[in-house]
Amino acid sequence: MTAERLYLFDTTLRDGAQTPGIDFSLEDKRHVAAMLDGLGIDYVEGGYPGANPTDTAFFADAPALDARFTAFGMTKRAGRSADNDPGLRALLEADADAVCFVAKSWDYHVRVALATSNEENLEGIAQSVAAACAAGKEVLLDCEHFFDGYKANPDYALACAKAALEAGARWIVLCDTNGGTLPHEISAIVAEVARHVPGERLGIHAHDDTGNAVANSLAAVRAGARQIQGTLNGIGERCGNANLVTLIPTLLLKEEFASRFETGVTDEALAGLTHLSRGFDEILNRAPDRQAPYVGDSAFATKAGIHASAIVKEPETYEHVPPETVGNRRRVMVSDQGGRSNLIAELHRIGLEVDKADTRLDGLLREVKRREAEGYAYEGADASFELLARRALGSVPHFFDVDSFRVMVERRHNAVGDLVTISEATVKVRVDGELLMSVGEGNGPVNALDMALRKDLGRYSPYLSGLELVDFKVRILNGTTAATTRVLVESADETGERWFTVGVSPNIVDASFQALIDSITYKLLKAGAPAGAP
Ligand SMILES: CC(=O)SCCNC(=O)CCNC(=O)[C@H](O)C(C)(C)COP(=O)(O)OP(=O)(O)OC[C@H]1O[C@@H](n2cnc3c(N)ncnc32)[C@H](O)[C@@H]1OP(=O)(O)O
Ligand SMILES: CC(=O)C(=O)O
């Protein structure tokens, strides 16, 4: 059976720009368009030329793409001719291969939002589409509120679609604008519409207001649509749009779709999807969703001991697709939910081969569970776990001892009279039997402790020159005055490696200090520093 072509239309830079809290710069738009092109998307909707300076500038210097670069805008205004509508003119003059018009297809909206007649709206659609075709553009019509409109007045919703088709539109895109339609309704309505508009000219644009945008897009394809509109990481107005980062692996990896359709996305591009999705979050300056399907950090992670024991035998037992197909990775985590299989898998990852019958595993597992009950969380603190495990198995050299530390926080006026808060820490450590004392100043107690600790560690200091404290997270574990504090420290070094360490104490400074000590010890271990003299 020859595969049918399924087209992917990306609206990250248009509907995605309508996401609360997201504001693309011109540079962001150029960068994202290139990312989408590299992924193999067929249409990249760049924005709404004429609506704001960024979009106008983007279309004035259009990116060179393999994808069809698409300008979005509304059909001509009621009461104006197509020749005399500045908005329409801006669209037609934009340097774009395609124009995607948004048009009302729910008679209720025609009456209330446009305050015009059903007939005039139909004429507006036909005249706008014809003008764009005459300007040499490929034309798409986004039928706004199509599903709600179809439920209210199917003849009118269909008439809008047909008006565009007859005027030369290549695609009629059925939009679930308010996002309230459910998959079974999408299936039924798309199947009915496909009796009037050929499926290979039908698209779907779904919003996620019931959490069904991806399911609705797949339902529309099963019912005959051949174009899916969506966005990277599902951004978009209100709850977002259909997430292309979820849809693409489903279309390429799930038998029903993979055997029937082909898209412009290659297996190689699919293997870069996790990287692309996280890179896009970087542009948005937000943390990636750990539980995102396929590409999330937790998408192929397991804590449960029963699952881990099967995964180490055969990963397929608990994985619906191999993680590497989307560029993600399997993670078997160590926590209070785990058993010896979790431990063995994690020990293997860090290069420690231990037999399942080794009795030291029981001791290590008991220690992990005891500490987790106290508040430690090793699933997010890989370096602290490695130290704990290597100590249990007897392979961490003794580098230094901490004799004592003291931190002082002072609020005072500085030399120019400004009120400042400074922290000063004093740390005493023993290296090779010698007592060393360092003082550090910082903008907070943890920063000051970090400075003091690293200032003089005797012969270990050269190993620590590239060590950097990248991030610091504090969590209060029970909300009483006797609360326990968990501190997670993220560190990095000159090799680019990042690692996480954890400390727990009723005292936040003490918890931070533990995490810092683990971080330094891990760095010395990984750098191959020799053990100190007792
Ligand atoms: C479902 C969607 O996501 S559609 C996309 C929505 N995205 C956006 O609106 C973002 C970009 N929009 C904008 O920057 C502005 O709204 C502009 C530049 C397009 C228009 O701004 P303004 O001229 O100030 O109009 P305003 O935004 O207040 O109202 C929209 C007007 O377009 C009319 N209109 C809306 N849809 C259509 C349509 N499909 N065809 C014709 N006219 C339309 C409305 O009736 C309203 O007309 P009115 O001013 O006579 O009441
Ligand atoms: C066009 C569009 O974004 C919508 O109808 O949701």
Attribute tags:
AIPM/Hcit_synth_CS, isoleucine biosynthesis, binds acetyl coenzyme *A, 2-isopropylmalate synthase activity, 19 helices, TIM Barrel, binds pyruvic acid, LeuA/HCS_post-cat, Citramalate synthase, 534 residues
What does this structure look like?
The chain has 19 helices and 18 strands. By secondary structure, it is an alpha/beta fold. It folds into three domains: 4-265, Aldolase class I (TIM Barrel); 301-392, no CATH class; 401-526, 2-Layer Sandwich (Double Stranded RNA Binding Domain), CATH 3.30.160. Helix 2 links the parallel strand 3 (43-47) and strand 4 (68-74). Helix 18 (445-455) packs parallel to helix 19 (508-526). The N and C termini lie far apart (74 Å). The structure holds acetyl coenzyme *A (ACO) and pyruvic acid (PYR). Acetyl coenzyme *A binds next to strand 5 and helix 4.
